[in-house]
Amino acid sequence: MTDLAKELAAVVGPAHVLTDPAVAMSYLVDWTGRWRGTCRLVVRPGSTEQVTAVIAACAAAGAPIVPQGGNTGLVGGGVPVDLPEAVLLSLRRLTDLGPVDRNGTVVAGAGSTLASIQQHAHAAGWDLGLDFASRDSATVGGAVATNAGGVRVLRYGDARRQVLGVEAVLASGALVSHVDGPMKESAGYDLGSLLAGSEGTLGVLTRVRVRLVPQLPARAVALLAVDGVAEAQAVLDSVQSEVDGLTAAELFLRDGLSLVLAATGAAPPFSRGWPAYLLLECGGRVDPLEALASVLADQAEVRDAAVASDATGRAALWRYREAHTESISAAGVPVKLDVGLPAAGLADAEYAIRAAVDEVAPGARVIIFGHLAEANLHVNVLDAPSDRVDAVSDAVLRTVAERGGSVSAEHGIGRAKPRWLGLTRSAADIAAMRRIKSALDPDGLLNPGVLFDR
Ligand code: 2HG
Ligand code: ZN
């Protein structure tokens, strides 16, 4: 064992310092298989105090630190690519959940999975406003650090909006902690907002105080077949103005559904295929199915529809959408892009993105799906030759930027996209971000290569 490994073993116990690459492997490869790293060791602290001691020891040894939650990120932000000297700091053991207070707030250890917080909230009559398919592995620390989105952003906002306060260890070893006290406050810089979306470059989250939302006992889901993205948007516009309680509006297309059917063996939702599908969910205190169905009955764009308000039927409809990521991975290692666009240009952008990919990687398959209400498209490109991966990213991100879009709507910049950050953020914005980074982490120890090019 090296000196640093021994020192860390004294802090967290030898069982929680992994130096054998074979044992550490599951921390070093992201689950899509695109991002692979190496590191000097993986350390798994079990308390805030241990995180503080680990960071102090790494800083003293000059070892870069790569924080990692559930390793469900999609932009390589938690994988130590080209960082053999790094310490991978896994937060997964920080799973304590405090009591849900009468205002519906809870303090969760950074390593708590979204599913564990959801169950904890449900038991107290509340719910978490954040949800996405990797809920059983994704941790709240990772979700906040990347400012993740998911399928409820339309109703409750992204991860940042759920945060009332954070506890985090800075590169200096200082502990900043603001997870107690009143719900409402206007007393200085909001470090929670700053750390949300900082992707482990400014501090390591150890606890998060989350704002919960009322649990909605009745839910209805509708899966609608339509002729394209513009038609899906037209239906969504009507539903948004006429139906109460919309919680999700998800889009997928014919080719994505084919991959899902092939990978899951599920039966097709309709007797024939359609160009596009819109999945809507409404939640309320009384069953929203009738209200939703009556508005949908008037929508000329709806070609076919399936609805459910029982748990099994809802889950079956959701599966067509939520199985996209795993079904795409079953077909290959995709180039993953996650773009936000002005809603008005979304349908045109879909064609422009396909054309841009075709120009640089003819024959590649472009699978598009995403969160329609936020005009957030997940662009997954399969079968691009390995020497065209950057060209594909460049072509898609420039196409999006030319249309006023963003290079990342919810997955973050990570190691995948620093070179394109300037397409979305101004030179002044990036200079201000770099100044914040060097004020809080002057030696660049925290997650080097993420957000900014090394
Ligand atoms: C989703 O919306 C996730 O399902 C993953 O953000 C998207 O796999 C993707 O590209
Ligand atoms: Zn998404």
Low-confidence stretches: none
Give the cofactors and ligands.
(2R)-2-hydroxypentanedioic acid, zinc ion
Q: What is the tally of helical segments? A: 15
Structural class: alpha+beta
Please describe what this structure looks like:
This protein is an alpha+beta fold and 454 residues long. It has 15 helices and 16 strands. It starts with a helix and ends in a 14-residue tail after the last helix. The mean pLDDT is 97. The chain binds (2R)-2-hydroxypentanedioic acid and zinc ion. Zinc ion (ZN) binds next to loops.
Question: Which secondary structure elements does this structure contain, and how are they paired or packed?
Answer:
Blueprint: H1 3-12, E1 17-18, H2 21-28, E2 41-43, H3 48-61, E3 65-68, E4 87-90, E5 105-109, H4 114-123, E6 126-128, H5 140-145, H6 153-156, E7 163-169, E8 175-177, H7 191-195, E9 204-214, E10 218-226, H8 229-242, E11 246-253, H9 254-264, E12 276-284, H10 289-297, E13 304-308, H11 311-322, H12 324-331, E14 335-340, H13 346-360, E15 365-371, E16 376-382, H14 389-402, H15 427-440
Parallel strand pairs: 2-4, 3-4
Antiparallel strand pairs: 1-2, 5-9, 6-9, 7-8, 7-9, 10-12, 10-13, 11-12, 11-15, 14-16, 15-16
Helix pairs in contact: 1-3, 9-12, 13-14
Bound molecules: (2R)-2-hydroxypentanedioic acid (2HG) and zinc ion (ZN).
Provide a compact summary of the structure:
This protein is about 35% helix and about 20% strand. The chain is α+β, with helices and mostly antiparallel strands.
